[in-house]
Design a protein that fits this description.
By secondary structure, the chain is mostly beta strands. The chain folds into 2 domains: 63 residues, no CATH class; 366 residues, TolB, C-terminal domain (Neuraminidase), CATH 2.120.10. Helix content is 8%, strand content 35%. It contains 2 helices and 28 strands. The chain has a 4-stranded antiparallel beta sheet with strand order 1-28-27-26, with no helix packed on it. The longest helix is centred in the last third of the chain and has 21 residues. The protein is globular. Bound molecules: calcium ion (CA) (4 copies). One calcium ion binds next to loops.
Length: 432
C-alpha cells in the first residue's frame, strides 16, 4: 500500500514540478493522509519520531475496540505497517499530553487514570513508556486536589523526561509551578527551578540527551528580569547553570523546542525580542546557543504563531499559525506550517478553513509532518472532530533526477495511481 502511495506522490510531484518555486518545499494538499477516522470521538496531539516510523497520539476513539468507555487513551501508530497499538487502556481517567522520543524508543505522557493501581487519587502523574518491552514506569507519585504533574517532554534518546508540577512538597512548599527532569538510568529526579510563590516555570523542552532544559518563567532572576514578564530560560544539568535567553520588557515566552545537539532552541514569544517583534504578535524565534544570536522565524503582523516543534537534526520545524505567512492563508485560519531553516522558507501544510490544523511535528527529512485537525481535509472528516493526519512533502532537490515522460502520459498515470491510492486510503478505517 505504501508503495502505491509513494509512487502516487512521486508522479504528482513530477507533474507539478514545472510550477515548483525554487525556494519552497512541495507539499500539495492531496498528499495529506488521514490516520484516524471516527465520526464523533476526537484524537489529539500527535508526536512523531525522527525517522517517521512511529506516531504517538491520544484519542477518545474506540480504536481497535480497545477503548469502549471513550475516555482519553494513548495510542501508537506504526507508519510502515499502518497498525495501531493501544499503549494505555483504562476504564476511567484521561491519558493525554504525550511525546515520543526522537529515537522512537519511548513515550513520555501524563495521565489521571489509575494506571497499575498506583494513582487511586486521580491527579495527573507523569509516566515513561518503553515501546519494545511494553513496560510503563510511573515517574511521579503524588496526591492532592488540583496538584498535577503536566507537560511531559522526552529527550531525544528517551532517557530523560521534563515536566512541570505544582505539587506541594518539601522542595516546593509554595506549590507554584516548578520544572523537574527525571533521569531514567539513575532513576532520580532533578529539580531544575526553585522559585517562590507567584513564579510559574512552565513549558519545558529537552535536547537529545536531556542535559539542556528550556522553559518559560516569570522569575525576576535576581534582578535580570525586573518586569517579571515571562522570559525563555535554558538550564544546563551538567554545569548546573541557568541562562536567561530573552530579555524583554513586556510580553511572554511560551513553548520551546531544542535540537538533538542543543545548538538551536526555537521558541514563541509575544515580546519585542531583540527588536524583532515591535507589533507584539506571538512570533517564533531561533536561539543559537553557540553564537548567542536570536533570529526571527516569523516576523509577521497578520497573526500569531504557536507551539514550535523542531526536528532533531535542526533542519526544520513545524508549528501552527493564523498568520498569512506564504500568501496562502488570507482569511487567517489556524494552519499547520513547516519552516525550512537553511532555505528560510515556509510551507503551508493545511489550507482548510472549516477547522483548525494544530500541533505539527516534522521528521528529520523535513518531508513528513504529523498534526491534528478538525477540518474536513480531503472530504475525509465531514463530522469535524479532531483527527490525526500525516502529510508527505518532498524536497525540490529530489525532483531534479526524475526521468522525462510526456506530460499527458504522466497525468494519466497519476490519475490511475490516484484512484488506487484513494481506494487504499479509504480502507484505512478506525474501527468504531
Ligand atoms: Ca478506556
Ligand atoms: Ca496520584
Ligand atoms: Ca517553589
Ligand atoms: Ca523581562
Amino acid at each position: 500500500m505504501k508503495n502505491f502511495a509513494n509512487l502516487f506522490l512521486f508522479m504528482i510531484l513530477f507533474v507539478f514540478s514545472p510550477s515548483v518555486m525554487a525556494q519552497q518545499l512541495v507539499c500539495p494538499t492531496p498528499l495529506i493522509q488521514q490516520i484516524t477516522e471516527d465520526p464523533v470521538q476526537s484524537s489529539q496531539v500527535s508526536s512523531m519520531n525522527g525517522d517517521a516510523t512511529r506516531i504517538s497520539f491520544s484519542s477518545f476513539a474506540n480504536i481497535n475496540g480497545d477503548n469502549p468507555e471513550g475516555n482519553l487513551e494513548l495510542y501508537l501508530f506504526d507508519i510502515p505497517t499502518d497498525e495501531f497499538t493501544a499503549v494505555t487502556s483504562n476504564p476511567v481517567g484521561n491519558t493525554g499530553a504525550q511525546e515520543i522520543s526522537e529515537s522512537g524508543n519511548r513515550i513520555a505522557f501524563t495521565s489521571k487514570a489509575n494506571i497499575n493501581n498506583s494513582n487511586p487519587d486521580g491527579n495527573e502523574e507523569v509516566y515513561l513508556q518503553d515501546i519494545e518491552s511494553g513496560t510503563t514506569k510511573q515517574i511521579t507519585d503524588t496526591s492532592g486536589v488540583n496538584m498535577n504533574n503536566e507537560e511531559a517532554f522526552i529527550s531525544g534518546n528517551g532517557e530523560r523526561v521534563a515536566f512541570q508540577t505544582n505539587v506541594i512538597s518539601a522542595n516546593n512548599p509554595e506549590g507554584n509551578y516548578e520544572i523537574y527532569v527525571f533521569d531514567n538510568p539513575s532513576d532520580t529526579l532533578i529539580m531544575i527551578t526553585d522559585e517562590p510563590a507567584g513564579v510559574a516555570a512552565r513549558f519545558p523542552s529537552l535536547n537529545g540527551d536531556g542535559t539542556l532544559v528550556a522553559f518559560s518563567s516569570n522569575s525576576t532572576n535576581g534582578g535580570q528580569n525586573p518586569e517579571g514578564n515571562r522570559e525563555l530560560f535554558l538550564a544546563n544539568t551538567v554545569t548546573n547553570s541557568v541562562l536567561q535567553v530573552t530579555n524583554t520588557t513586556s510580553g511572554d515566552a511560551f513553548q520551546s523546542t531544542i535540537t538533538s545537539d542543543g545548538s538551536l532552541v526555537a521558541f514563541s514569544h509575544t515580546g519585542n525580542v531583540r527588536g524583532l517583534n515591535s507589533t507584539g504578535n506571538r512570533q517564533l524565534f531561533l536561539f543559537n546557543l553557540n553564537t548567542g544570536d536570536i533570529g526571527a522565524v516569523t516576523n509577521d503582523n497578520t497573526g500569531d504563531s504557536f507551539v514550535p516543534n523542531i526536528n532533531g537534526d535542526g533542519t526544520c520545524l513545524a508549528f501552527h499559525s493564523n498568520a498569512n505567512l506564504t500568501g496562502g492563508n488570507p482569511l487567517g485560519g489556524q494552519q499547520v506550517y513547516i519552516y525550512n531553516i537553511a532555505l528560510d522558507a515556509f510551507t503551508q501544510i493545511t489550507t482548510d478553513l472549516d477547522g483548525v490544523g494544530v500541533n505539527g511535528a516534522v521528521d528529520n527529512s523535513c518531508s513528513l509532518v504529523t498534526f491534528t485537525s478538525n477540518a474536513n481535509i480531503n472530504n475525509g472528516n465531514p463530522d469535524n472532530n479532531f483527527e490525526v493526519y500525516l502529510a508527505q512533502c518532498v524536497d525540490p532537490d529530489d525532483l531534479r533526477n526524475v526521468p522525462t515522460l510526456s506530460e499527458w502520459g504522466l497525468i494519466a498515470m497519476a490519475s490511475i495511481l490516484g484512484i488506487v491510492g484513494f481506494m487504499v486510503m479509504r480502507r484505512r478505517q478506525v474501527s468504531a
